[in-house]
Amino acid sequence: MRAALIGTGFGEQHLSWLTKCPQVELDSVVYATNRERAERLARRFGAAKVSDDAADATDGPSDLVIVASPVFLHAEHAARALSNGKSVVCEKPLALTTAQAQALCSAAREHDAATMVMFQWRFHPALQTLRDALREGRLGRPVCADLQFHHDFLAGEPTPFPWRHTPGQAGAGAFADMGVHLFDLLRWLTGEEFHVAGTLSSTLWASRRSASGTVAGNTEDTGAALLRADSGFPATVSVSRVTGGRRSLRVSLSGDAGSAWADVCPETTAASLASSVPGLQGAWAPGSLRNPYLDFLAPVSGTAGSHVPDFSAGLAAQRLLDAVRMSEVAPVGQ
Which of 69, 257, 291, 328 stands the most exposed, by the fewest C-beta atoms within 10 Å? Predict the structure, then answer.
C-alpha cells in the first residue's frame, strides 16, 4: 500500500506510526508553508516526493491519503481523495460542521472506502479495559460519567497555530482540539448516544501573538459541557488547553455496582486504572498506546480491527461538537 501525507504538524506522528506497518510505502509529503520541515520528514521516513500541492496526494498514485491539514481544509482534502478512490485517514475533528461531516460519510459509503478519524485514545489498553468492564456489567448500570482533558500547549500568549483561534478555520477551540476526543470516548465506552444540555466556556487571551502578527482569540480556551445519555444518566466533559504545567486525560465511570477511573498521560501514554471493583486495576508503561494503523490496516492482512473509528464515528462526535457550540453561553474573556 502506498500512502501520501497532507500536513506536517501532527502528520509527523502519523508517519511514525506508519513506519511500523511494513505493508505501507510513503509516496509523498505535502506541506503548506514549511518546505524545510517537509523535506526533513521525507528524508526521515523515506518519502519519494515533497510538494506544496494537495492534489499530488489526493489525485496521485497513493492508495491511502492521510489528511493532517488544519480543520478548515479537512472536508476539501478528504472529499477529493475519496472521489479518486483512496482510503482516507483524517485528523479530528472530521470537518468544520456536521453538514460537511455528513457529506464525507456519504462519499465514503458511495466509494466503499476504508476510513478512519484519528481518535487514537480508543486504542489505549487502559480505556479498552474500562470499556470492557462496563460492557460486561462489572460496574452495574451506568449512573454517571466524567471526562476531563487538560493540556498547556496554548497556556502562554504566543501561539504557533493562528488558525486555532478563528472559528471559521478551527470550528471551535478547546472543544475541537480536545473535547471531540472525549465525545468519541463517551459514546464508544458506554455504547450510548448523548444529547447536550448546556455549555460554559472561557477565553484566556483576548488576543495572541503569532509569527504573522496579532491574532484575535475568538475560540474557547477552556470549556465544560453537560450531556445526558438516551438512557438518562448524566455526563460531564471538561477541557482546557491553558492548564499551565498539567497534561492529563481522565475518564471516570460510575455504575450502581461500582466505579472505575483511568488516568492517561497524553505525552507518554503511561496510564493507570483504579476501581472500587475487586480485580479491576492496572498500570501501563509509557508507550502503551497501540498504533491505530495496525487495526486500520488489519483488513489488508486478513484480520479485523474492532476499535477503528470510521467517518461515521467522526460524524457522531461532530454532531456533539456542533451541539456544544450551539448551546454555549458566550465565551467569557479574562
Answer: 257
